[in-house]
Design brief:
With 331 residues, this protein is an alpha+beta fold. It is built from eight helices and eleven strands.
Length: 331
């Protein structure tokens, strides 16, 4: 018979995995740097990828956010969001971006295009050397995973191109710390003052012991599963429903992709079961006070056609949708 401690541990594990998969971060391995207060900093020490074939110490993740007007069949349901993987991560053509790219030819549809454009993030790993989060739950394995947005990533990458940099920042003996600093700009979180340390330093004895005991993560293990042909069709159907302002339909799509907190249909065993927070909290550039914000700006394409008259600020969503559908019919 299981002991009370074992029962509690099992229930806790089930609660941590609710609404997600093995990549949900229920082991507290993901360090939520976006939760630090404005004006505070966290010092990280990045480590190499456990996959020796990966040239970089990160892997790139690209997701598309699909907002829905509630959940079908639920009264007073609030807007929900589902994240689906963009197959450009695997060098293939994305059926959603194929359509969204055409919207950038029309100035009136640019904002809608950015809404559905892929959001990049970069998965890294390492130690947290200075941690301002008093309520951070330290995992048994001190090697943490980091979900880094494009703004911070540009700072990380630019230093690697500096000819004065002699060693990789991930070198165990002569590496560099990276200091993430959170400020604000226009009422939103800003990380532009984050920077590398100027002096090299070696891993401490405790850090080396942790590395020896636990080993490195293989970062690609924490990327979403590549969608199958059936899942690509579901993604396109969900995208069209989202653009049309329809609610999320768990009976049609719940076996494949679903919002956080929504269970898969009973008896379902197919699909990637990707949920909205499979790797990290929602990444929209939210006010600094938000506890689930980190930078996720991305390089959406610029308009490639003559600039048309912008849509009026009071233009109805129905009018914008009509413009999108009219453009589709011309193709």
């Amino acid at each position: 018979m299981a002991s009370l401690a074992e029962i509690r541990a099992r229930l806790q594990a089930a609660e941590s995995n609710k609404g997600g998969n093995q990549q949900s971060g229920g082991d507290n391995a993901i360090y939520p740097h976006w939760n630090i207060d404005e004006g505070q900093s966290a010092t990280l020490r990045f480590l190499p990828d456990g996959d020796s074939k990966n040239t970089f110490f990160w892997v790139e993740r690209a997701m598309i956010k699909l907002p829905f007007n509630g959940i079908k069949g639920e009264m007073d349901s609030k807007q929900v969001q589902v994240q689906v993987p963009c197959v450009e991560m695997w060098g293939e053509a994305c059926p959603i971006l194929a359509e969204v790219r055409t919207w950038f030819k029309d100035k009136a549809l640019e904002d809608m295009g950015r809404k559905y454009w892929k959001k990049r993030s970069y998965i890294m790993q390492g130690f947290v050397r200075e941690n301002p989060l008093a309520d951070d739950k330290h995992p048994e394995n001190p090697i943490r995973r980091f979900i880094i947005g494009p703004q911070i990533f540009q700072t990380i990458k630019s230093a690697l191109m500096d000819p004065e940099l002699e060693e990789l920042p991930t070198d165990l003996m002569r590496g560099l710390d990276f200091r993430i600093t959170k400020t604000s700009k226009g009422g939103y979180a800003d990380y532009s003052t984050s920077k590398w340390a100027r002096k090299e330093s070696a891993l401490t004895e405790a850090e080396q012991a942790a590395l020896e005991a636990h080993g490195l993560f293989t970062l690609s293990d924490f990327l979403p599963k590549k969608p199958s042909e059936a899942e690509l069709k579901v993604m396109k159907e969900m995208f069209e429903a989202s653009v049309d302002g329809k609610p999320y339909d768990p009976d049609r799509w719940g076996a494949y992709f679903r919002p956080a907190g929504v269970a898969a249909p009973q008896g379902s065993s197919t699909g990637s079961e990707t949920v909205a927070e499979s790797v990290a909290p929602e990444a929209k550039s939210a006010p600094v006070s938000s506890t689930s914000s980190f930078d996720d700006e991305d390089d959406a394409p610029a308009a490639t056609a003559p600039v048309q008259k912008p849509a009026a600020s009071g233009q109805k969503a129905e009018d914008i949708l009509a413009m999108i559908r009219a453009r589709q019919n011309k193709q």
